[in-house]
Amino acid sequence: MARGQRAVSDDLKEIRRAAILDAALRLFRRTSFEAITMAEVASECGIAKGTVYLYFATKEALFLALLTDQFADWFSALGAYLDAPADEVSASGHFVEWVVESLLQRPLFVRLIAVMHTVLEHNIELETALPFKRLLASGVVRSGTALARRFDWPDPETGMRLLVWLHAIVIGLQHMAAPAPIVLKAMRKDPALAMFDIDFATELRALLMQVLAGMNQTQGDKA
Predict the structure, then answer these.
(1) 3-state SS, one letter per residue, for the chain
(2) Which domains does the chain show, CATH number per domain?
(3) CB 53 within 8 A of CB 38
(4) Is the pLDDT of residue 155 over 70?
(5) Which of 50, 158, 147, 135 is nearest to 91 (CA)?
(6) Residues 6 or more apart from 116 whose CB is under 8 A from it?
(7) Nearest 5°: CA angle at 178, between 172 and 181?
(8) 77 close to 138: Cβ distance less than 8 angstroms
(9) What pTM value is reported for the model?
């Protein structure tokens, strides 16, 4: 669609909505969520600021839509992975490596997850919150059940719990692994603070291995 052209049909409206999301994603690659304004999104997209608000009531709603697409993509990739031969997926180390690599390949996804609860889920309407949380619930139930089946856990809810815990772990590690510049400088100036200077992938890998070991032990005891 030409820059500045008014969207009329449903197809054109969907194209414009996608263009707004792409513009926001480009800006997010370059800077933080806090630094982005709806005016900048509009300028990046080549439309009036008021037009952006016709599609997204708030900046939070706009970025939550981005996160919705990211979650859908990740759950789809997880589903494809779980369709692989069982002898690969059922190995804890293999699964952990897949999770770590899938997140390293999606750095914007990880950044959005980190601000999901504290920022993106605020200043939105019920009509925005409800389908988003339902998408997450559907993905957790579907993928969690498949995980339990692949790991031979008798309780499907264990797979769902693993995904919920993974979500919480990613949020915490992302915040710790991306401190404010002045805090990072302080940690690297004082060797006694080195314990707080963590690598996201390294710690995620170690934590997930521990969690899976515990879950396998617990489920084995129940069998």
Answers:
(1) CCCCCCCCCHHHHHHHHHHHHHHHHHHHHHCCCCCCCHHHHHHHHCCCHHHHHHHCCCHHHHHHHHHHHHHHHHHHHHHHHHCCCHHHHCCHHHHHHHHHHHHHCCHHHHHHHHCHHHHHCCCCCHHHHHHHHHHHHHHHHHHHHHHHHHCCCCCHHHHHHHHHHHHHHHHHHHHHHCCCHHHHHHHHHCHHHHHHCCCHHHHHHHHHHHHHHHHHHHHHHHC
(2) 1-55 (1.10.10), 58-222 (1.10.357.10)
(3) yes
(4) yes
(5) 147
(6) 64, 67, 171
(7) 140
(8) no
(9) 0.90
- Which amino acid belongs to residue 180? A
The model's pLDDT over 168-214, given as tens digits with 9 standing for 90+, comes to: 999 999 999 999 999 999 999 999 999 999 999 999 999 999 999 99
Q: Which two tokens stand for residue 114?
A: 């980190």
Q: What is the pLDDT of residue 7?
A: 52
Closest CA to 128 of 49, 51, 21, 56: 56
